[in-house]
Amino acid sequence: MKSLLHTLKFAHNLWPYYVGIALLSMLVALTGIGIPFIIGRAVDLMVGVVQGGDGTVTDALWLAGILLGLDIANTVIRNISGYLGDMMATRLKAQLSIIYYDHLLKLPQSYFDNELTGTIINRLNRAITEVSNFLNIFANNILQMLLTTVLTVIVVAIYSWELALMVVAIYPVFLWLTALTSKKWQKLQNAKNLETDIASGRFAEVITQIKVVKSYVQEALEKRHFVRRYKKTIDMTHTQSTYWHKMDVARGLALSGIFFAIFTYIFTQTVQQRFSIGDMVLLVTLINALRMPLFSMSFIV
Fold first, then answer.
1. Residue 165 domain boundaries
2. What is the pTM of this model?
């Protein structure tokens, strides 16, 4: 996260995109969270009618119309925000690439004497492309999910502060387990990147000097070197993936326990008539929808 914020300092001129994406993401979150409200009110209307209430077809049509309006608005605004996110990511990638290239041109010759060409190129592709792709995903999806999460907690707190505390409790548990996982995962990923950089660097040098390689009959040696590097990444991936998924199971079990407590509370409070059927549907829909934003946070951590 620190490296990401440091990178954004080189692209402060893109602030209109940041502001536009933030405002549109807020509207996406508001229209998205409004849909469960309408569904909840519709459920209450139907329950009231079944129990002999005075609900009318006009009321049902109004709710359906509002639901349609929110859905259309959410779709349109989300796509406008997505366009801004795509343009921001592309401009950022171009700007960082130019800065990186300009920096390389200013380095002394001694740097290039001690560094493989392929390694330099690989760093450019991995660092800048990954940052640009992450910000594109963040702008188009993750930011909206985070804002939705904040609004959901506020809405839940209006209905029940006890329930809101249980929802909030999810985050420190999840973030703590994710941070533990991320530390070791990043260490292994850096080791894999090093092996890939060396292999790619050697590959570029061999292709550039292919006549020399063939003249000295070094094809088999270069192939063994290349294969050895990538075999190391396979072994590292086995360790990395096994550890990640074990910890993911631990996170999932912890979350399952907390969600069990949350849904149990909602159901018992509904039985005791503290919540209406519509309120129950609203709360269950909102809280269950937090699962996706929650797991998206692991990309940030």
1. 2-300
2. 0.71
Structural domains in the chain (count) = 1
pLDDT in tens, 61-90: 999 999 999 999 999 998 998 898 888 888
CA distance 246 to 185: 12
Neighbours of 156 (CB within 10 A): 24
- Low-confidence stretches of the chain (pLDDT < 70) are 1-11, 112-120, 122-127, 139-141, 293, 295-301
Q: What CATH number is associated with residue 269?
A: 1.20.1560.10
Contacting residues for 146 by C-beta, under 8 A, at least 6 apart: 293, 296, 297
